[in-house]
Specification:
The complex is a heterodimer of chains A (950) and B (369).
Chain A (H helix, E strand, L loop, with lengths): L8 E5 L11 H15 L3 E5 L15 E3 L5 H10 L5 E3 L4 H13 L2 H4 L3 E2 L4 H8 L1 H10 L7 E4 L2 H11 L3 E5 L9 E3 L2 H14 L5 E5 L5 E9 L5 E9 L12 E3 L6 H17 L5 E9 L7 E7 L4 H10 L3 H9 L26 E7 L20 E7 L2 H11 L17 H9 L5 H10 L4 H8 L3 H17 L9 H9 L4 H8 L3 H11 L4 E4 L13 E5 L4 E2 L5 E2 L11 E5 L10 H16 L3 E6 L14 E4 L4 H11 L3 E3 L4 H5 L2 H6 L9 H8 L1 H10 L7 E4 L2 H11 L3 E5 L9 E3 L2 H14 L5 E5 L5 E9 L4 E12 L9 E3 L6 H17 L4 E10 L2 E8 L6 H8 L3 H9 L17 E7 L20 E7 L5 H8 L8
Helix pairs in contact in A: 1-11, 5-6, 7-8, 13-14, 14-16, 15-16, 18-19, 20-30, 26-27
Chain B lengths: L7 E6 L4 E6 L6 E9 L5 H5 L7 E5 L3 E2 L18 E3 L2 E2 L12 H7 L4 E3 L3 H11 L2 E6 L5 H10 L9 H4 L5 E3 L6 E6 L5 H8 L3 E6 L5 H5 L5 E4 L10 H12 L4 E4 L1 H9 L4 E17 L5 E12 L1 H6 L3 E7 L5 E6 L4 E4 L14 H13 L1
Parallel strand pairs in B: 3-4, 4-6, 5-7, 6-8, 11-12, 11-13, 13-14, 14-19
Antiparallel strand pairs in B: 1-2, 1-9, 2-8, 3-9, 10-12, 15-16, 15-17, 17-18, 18-19
The chains are: A alpha+beta (950), B alpha/beta (369).
Chain lengths: 950, 369
């Protein structure tokens, strides 16, 4: 069936603020869907309350509604746009599906004559209702784990007796896995059963036989209206059943499945998708496989929508699932569409990979003091990275190098854990460091069989780890002078960084680099092309590797490099790496706009990033995408290969900014604000001198490198004192202390975690109001794009504060000081590009808390609220293409825009929810109000001091 | 356990291009064949034992090979049929409870030379751009000139008859002798899973050697006839073509797969040609032009049926089309009980989307009974 010509106007529902379990992968899928529909001339209307997204950009849809995701908003939109023919709810995660169902139940879609496309409600209901789903699966002959429902203590006991242990207890009708637990031993059962029954509002629990140790897989499917189904990707969880797939280290393609078992799984997945309803779109199916010779396959669940895994699968294979799913929803069949990568072959096919990808989640347990750090049934990670390599080992190494947790890869960086008891403990209770601990265990000499027995990780993966360790040992017997080319090449092929090799050889990183250069061991770039090079690909999506040579008939010998460098002027934009608290989707928004702006003024744009959830790593975004760790070695090699005019570091958050110093040292041009200025702003001493020279007030402060110094400083500054480390993100390690005992404890703690850090001690302005300004500076003029006032008092991290644009109660005198200070500081720092300055206001005096000459978290918010492309302008300024006077600024905002932080505390039930100088929120939403009389503002304002209970 | 250093090896193409790698298991030797690549991510054991690959140096594009070892049940013939293996990462260690040996042992048992650590992606791109060609893999890395000389002697695949090399010498039976139907199968390189797929549909099969005559087959009084897959060029297979003509003349139920499909085309006067670099993988999209549905298929062929000739033939209908390059993927005769496909509905390796074709064959047999 060709495209359904009745559909002329479609509403897409976004996923709202970012929370754990639902992150920026839905910005990627929503953006792709919008583009895909527009290609077909369809009018698009979007609702999403998350201002930090690309999808909510005015350029992405015909009408963008930054409204709360509720049926009231839907009705408003449908009244304003009676022409809407259909709603596509599959791109916005569970939030969008839930809203779609709610609207359906209320009859809203029917009232407005809107068709639901991409899924059917029955399919959602079946897959959401465990009981119904189970019945259906058994009817169609798909095995499921034994499961039963208990509504009483006695019934629960009976079930346990029948199933045996281990078991999983899940409380019905609770959110985010509350009350879910593993029961390994009979003696724990009574308590956990009682707790589950009590937590459930209907006094009901589901009891599953736990498939602990079974291998876990996911398949990503697409189906068209003609019932053609293709499998886009198979994903194997290295961590077996028992750890949430969002918290698992996952690998694609599946590494340890025979064709026979894989094809059985494929048949089951197709059968399941067809059984749950008649819809065209994407679908994710999860399976468990018994780790014995029977290779029994059991269905875990099916999600009839685009998911986190489908974003990963799209980046892993190059097949843009959301883009194609949107086309299928409007009536195209797969055989009518072309493969988006080759452009010459059919979209009805199954991608094949000649590389391996490894995804590692990124956790932020450090932000949740007292949280249970063990991984289990409930997802706890806040972001993820993906490594691509020509082997599992290389991909694993690249993923670990992408994490930005101060590790250089597996082993060989002096940070190994060598404590036997701790290793065994950490193997038993998986946490954020699982990927490293396996290596440490092997290095410690713990037998693979024992590691397997404890972790149930497939022996194939453990053998791969062991090979790495053996290679490390071999290399360690050489010196930089004695190591041969072949061995060094092998180390690079297996993903070891120059730093790690230097550690093994006992030399400097630069010596390893020089040695490889002398021996001709150079990075080459390969394409992600969906087809293992069977067809010529048109899409410039690259990853690096090291290859054996080939030699032409006339004797030219080289390693094959597929990334051809053009003679156009180029710019590299450094991405922001994995999402984490304090550095999220906002920076991806900035990077993407940086890329688009540079392209507008004639640059070939090159993006480097390693976060598979983002729009920046969509191969449609930049002219060239290098899916690589934002790690020095990888970046430097790309720069050497591409020879760009310069590198943009101020859009990718701290990740990119941290590399500025080294780029500058290697003589690579940083576009926009120079490294010196970036460094000056970060160096509190120099920065204060600058403020002093400009007559700008700042809180009394000093710098300490020991607890002794800190205590002496306290005598001068007076309590309360705000303590914070240098070069951190999102207020990491920041704390307000009120006496010497507290001060000493915190300083000792910080210095043990971050040795040699310069700690900043500020006199904390108690009861002050906090505000911040974002501005663009071209070196001559300064334009303030927005000033925001925090509703909560000073002391709560700006990312966790509710705030209004423009300020709601700052007088003219204060506003003038903010404007004057911002302009003076931006010029004094020689800013070229964006700058964010934070202020504390007390007794009508405006003090400077800090200045960051880079894109801030609030820039996307201000851009959305005013409807102005500020990052675009700032990028053109950085490139030297435009001056501020070239732009016609025209911000439009009636009333106020309120930024509201969103937290994921429900994932960490035992954690203190107290807010403070360290950021804890995972996302944000925008709310427009006409006046301060609005209930929403009144409500926030009246609760402003009750943040303790948030 | 200790780090293992591997010995150097090369692959030398007929046009003089060399790719460097390491010998698997430090085995010594040299092996010649036509170089081709398979893009499947699973099913290496099935591929290596598929008789259609006879005489070919197989490049596997999947990043790792050997991860799940080998299993005596998952073979498509009694021995390895490829002439050599070229891969990127070779897994010496495997992990699978159902496996009975490592891939290394399996290769050694079959005395097969394999080289790893080759930039297989560059090699595949090279074949894609320059076409399938003869090549040699060798651990004799210092003797390139001698290898070149020997390589020049290797015959070209075009016009090469290879069915006789892989066919059974004597007829044999497969399945339950009390089954409802009887099918006579001509073995010009038959895969075991074809026999399994036919037999499980209540069929008793007698498998005949490549040069068996119609009389030999028909004397067994089968209800249907089957022409198998196999290696090489269909053009020289005169006996098989003659057999197909006899079956078609009598309008007896006939089904052909791959090489068998090409033989049926030639029997109808439609020519075949050698493709630039063939189709080999388990992700090939085919559209059934009769139902309009797509299917993901397992494919392995270096020759194809001339599309214009097939389309303009008064008695032939092109029933299936390859969606990537629009080559002929299936044929049916309008007035005869005969159909064939270029791809592998028996899968193994590959998806099971096309197994309905075996049902169709049984339906055709029922119709004629």
């Amino acid at each position: 069936m060709p495209k359904n010509s009745k559909l002329k106007s479609i509403l897409i529902i976004g996923s709202g603020p970012i929370v754990i379990g639902q992150a920026c992968e839905f910005d990627y899928s929503g953006s792709q869907a919008l583009r895909s529909l527009r290609e077909d001339g369809i009018e698009t209307i979007l609702i999403n309350s998350n201002p930090a997204t690309i999808m909510t950009d005015p350029s992405m849809a015909d009408h963008v509604y930054l409204l709360p995701l509720n049926t009231k908003s839907l009705i408003k939109i449908l009244k304003e746009h009676p022409q809407i023919d259909a709603v596509l709810p599959t791109m916005g995660g569970q939030t969008a599906l839930n809203l779609c169902i709610e609207a359906d139940e209320k009859g809203i879609w029917e009232d407005f004559g809107v068709e639901i496309i991409g899924v059917d409600i029955d399919a959602i209901n079946i897959t959401e209702d465990r009981e119904q789903f189970r019945e259906l699966m058994l009817k169609i002959g798909i095995p499921m784990a034994p499961q039963a429902t208990a509504t009483s203590y006695l019934k629960g006991k009976e079930i346990a007796q029948e199933f045996g242990f281990p078991l999983v207890i899940r409380a019905s009708y609770t959110l985010g896995g509350a009350g879910a637990s593993f029961v390994h031993k009979e003696e724990d059962f009574d308590e956990l059963l009682t707790r589950g029954l009590e937590i459930s509002p209907i006094h009901e629990v589901m009891i599953d036989k736990a498939l602990i140790g079974w291998k876990e897989y996911e398949l990503e499917l697409l189906r068209d209206a003609n019932d053609n189904v293709v499998i886009i990707c198979s994903i194997e969880n290295m961590d077996p059943m028992g750890i949430h797939t969002g918290d698992s280290i996952t690998v694609a393609p599946a590494m340890t499945l025979s064709d026979r078992t894989y094809q059985r799984m494929r048949d089951m997945a197709i059968h399941m998708m067809r059984s749950i309803g008649d819809f065209a779109g994407g679908c994710n199916v999860q399976f468990a496989v018994s780790p014995d010779e029977k290779e029994d396959i059991i269905a875990i669940e099916i999600n009839p929508r685009v998911s986190r895994s489908s974003a990963l699968a799209s980046k892993a294979t190059g097949y843009p699932i959301a883009k194609i799913a949107a086309k299928l929803a409007i009536g195209y069949n797969l055989d009518e569409l072309s493969n988006q990568i080759t452009k010459s072959t059919s979209a009805l096919f199954e991608p094949t990979l000649d590389y391996v990808i490894v995804k590692i989640p990124r956790w932020n347990f450090d932000k949740f003091e007292g949280s249970d750090r063990t991984l289990g049934l409930q997802m706890k990670s806040v972001g993820e990275v993906m490594g691509i390599g020509r082997s599992f080992q290389e991909a694993l190494h690249k993923a670990t190098q992408s994490l930005e947790i101060k590790r250089n890869g597996l082993g060989a960086d002096g940070k190994e854990n060598k404590n036997y008891d701790q290793i065994i403990e950490k193997l038993t209770y998986a946490s954020w460091d699982r990927v490293f601990i396996i290596y440490d265990a092997i290095a410690k000499g713990i037998p693979l069989s024992r590691i397997h027995e404890i972790t149930k990780i497939d022996m194939w993966f453990l053998k791969q780890y062991e090979e790495l360790y053996l290679l490390q040992n071999e290399i360690s017997t050489y010196t930089i002078d004695s190591i041969e080319k072949e061995l060094l090449l092998e180390a690079k092929q297996k993903g070891y960084g120059d730093r790690q090799i230097a550690h093994m050889l006992g030399c400097l990183e630069s010596q390893v680099y020089n040695k490889r250069e002398a021996l001709g061991i150079n990075r080459v770039y390969k394409l992600v092309d969906t087809c293992a090079a069977e067809f010529k690909a048109q899409t410039p999506y690259y990853y690096s590797t090291f290859e054996s040579d080939m030699e032409t008939a006339d004797g030219k010998r080289y390693a094959d490099n597929e990334s051809v460098v053009s003679d156009k002027k180029k710019v590299i934009v450094l991405g922001s790496g994995p999402n984490r608290i304090g550095q999220g989707i906002e920076f991806d928004y900035c990077c993407v706009h940086g890329v688009l702006a540079a392209a507008e003024v004639g640059y070939e744009t090159i993006m480097i990033n390693c976060n598979p959830e983002t729009v920046s790593t969509d191969f449609d975004t930049a002219d060239k995408l290098y899916f690589e760790p934002v790690f020095w070695e990888h970046i430097y090699d790309i720069i050497k290969h591409e020879k760009p005019e310069g590198v943009i570091v101020q859009l990718g958050g701290q990740t990119a900014l941290k590399l500025a110093e080294k780029l500058s040292r290697y003589g690579i041009k940083i576009l926009g604000t120079s490294f010196e200025a970036l460094d000056l702003a970060e160096d509190r001493g120099l920065f204060s001198n600058l403020l002093k020279e400009n007559n700008i007030p700042y809180p009394k402060f000093d710098i300490a490198t020991t607890a002794d110094e800190a205590l002496a400083i306290a005598d001068v500054l007076d309590f309360p004192i705000l303590v914070r480390p240098s070069y951190v993100l999102g207020g990491q390690g920041m704390k307000i202390v009120i006496n010497k005992a507290e001060l000493e404890k915190h300083v000792v703690d910080l210095l043990s975690k971050m040795p040699d850090n310069k700690l900043l001690l500020d006199h904390y302005l108690d009861g002050a109001i906090e505000a911040e300004a974002d501005a663009i500076c071209d070196g001559e003029d300064v334009y303030i794009i927005g000033i925001m006032e925090h509703i909560e008092p000073c002391g709560i991290h700006s990312g966790d504060s509710n705030s209004t644009l423009p300020p709601f109660n700052l007088g003219d005198l204060v506003m003038q000081q903010i404007k004057d200070h911002t302009k003076k500081i931006a010029l004094a720092l020689n800013t070229v590009g964006l700058i964010n300055i934070q202020f504390a206001i007390k007794d009508d005096t405006v003090f400077i808390i800090e200045a960051n000459p880079r894109a801030s978290r609030t820039v996307p918010f201000i851009a959305k609220a005013y409807g102005e492309p500020y990052v675009n302008y700032a990028t053109k300024v950085m490139l030297g293409d435009k001056k501020l006077k070239d732009f016609n600024f025209n911000p439009k905002l009636e009333g106020y825009a309120i930024k509201q932080p969103v937290f994921s505390f429900n994932k960490f039930p035992n954690v203190n929810k107290k807010l403070g100088p360290e950021m804890k929120s995972t996302g944000e939403s925008i709310l427009f109000i006409d006046s301060l009389k609005d209930d929403a503002f009144y409500d926030l304002y009246s609760r402003r001091k009750m943040y303790l209970s948030k | 356990m200790k780090y293992q250093k591997r010995q150097n090896a090369i692959i030398l193409l007929a046009d003089g291009t060399i790719f460097y790698g390491k010998a698997v298991g430090n085995k010594q030797g040299t092996s010649f064949g036509e170089v081709c690549f398979n893009t499947g991510m699973t099913g290496y054991q099935e591929i290596f034992t598929d008789p259609s690959y006879y005489g070919q140096l197989m490049v596997t594009t999947n990043a790792h090979i050997g991860n799940y070892g080998t299993n005596a049940d998952e073979i498509e013939s009694d021995s390895i049929k490829i002439a050599g293996l070229i891969c990127k990462n070779f897994s010496y260690d495997y992990s699978r409870d159902a496996a009975d040996s490592s891939l290394e042992t399996f290769l050694n048992d079959n005395n097969l030379l394999a080289i790893s650590d080759v930039d297989t992606r560059a090699l595949v791109s090279y074949i894609r751009d320059n076409g399938a060609m003869n090549a040699v893999i060798s651990t004799d890395v210092d003797n390139v000139d001698e290898l070149k000389k020997q390589l020049a002697e290797v015959p070209n695949m075009n016009g090469l008859e290879l069915a006789s090399k892989v066919s059974t010498d004597e007829p044999y039976y497969f399945g339950d002798e009390n089954a409802t139907y009887k099918v006579a199968a001509l073995d010009i390189g038959i895969k075991k899973n074809i026999l399994r797929n036919i037999a499980k549909r209540d069929v008793y099969i007698k498998v005949f050697p490549y040069n068996a005559t119609f009389e030999e087959l028909s004397n067994w009084n089968p209800d249907g006839y089957f022409l198998s897959n196999g290696p090489g060029d269909p053009e020289p297979l005169k006996e098989a073509q003659a057999l197909a003509k006899e079956i078609i003349k009598r309008d007896l139920p006939l089904f052909g797969i791959c090489l068998g499909h090409q033989v049926i085309a030639i029997a109808n006067g439609v020519s075949t040609y050698k493709m630039h670099h063939g189709h080999r993988g388990i992700n090939h999209p085919v559209k059934n032009l009769v139902t309009g549905k797509g299917e993901i298929t397992s494919q392995n062929h270096g020759f194809a049926v001339n599309r214009e000739e097939a389309e303009s033939h008064p008695d032939l209908e092109v029933t299936h089309m390859h969606l990537n390059d629009h080559t002929v993927a299936g044929l049916a005769m309008k007035s005869k009980n005969c159909f064939s496909v270029q791809y592998h509905p028996e899968a193994s390796p590959g998806p099971h989307d096309s197994s309905y074709l075996f049902d169709q064959f049984i339906e055709n047999i029922k119709k004629s009974k």
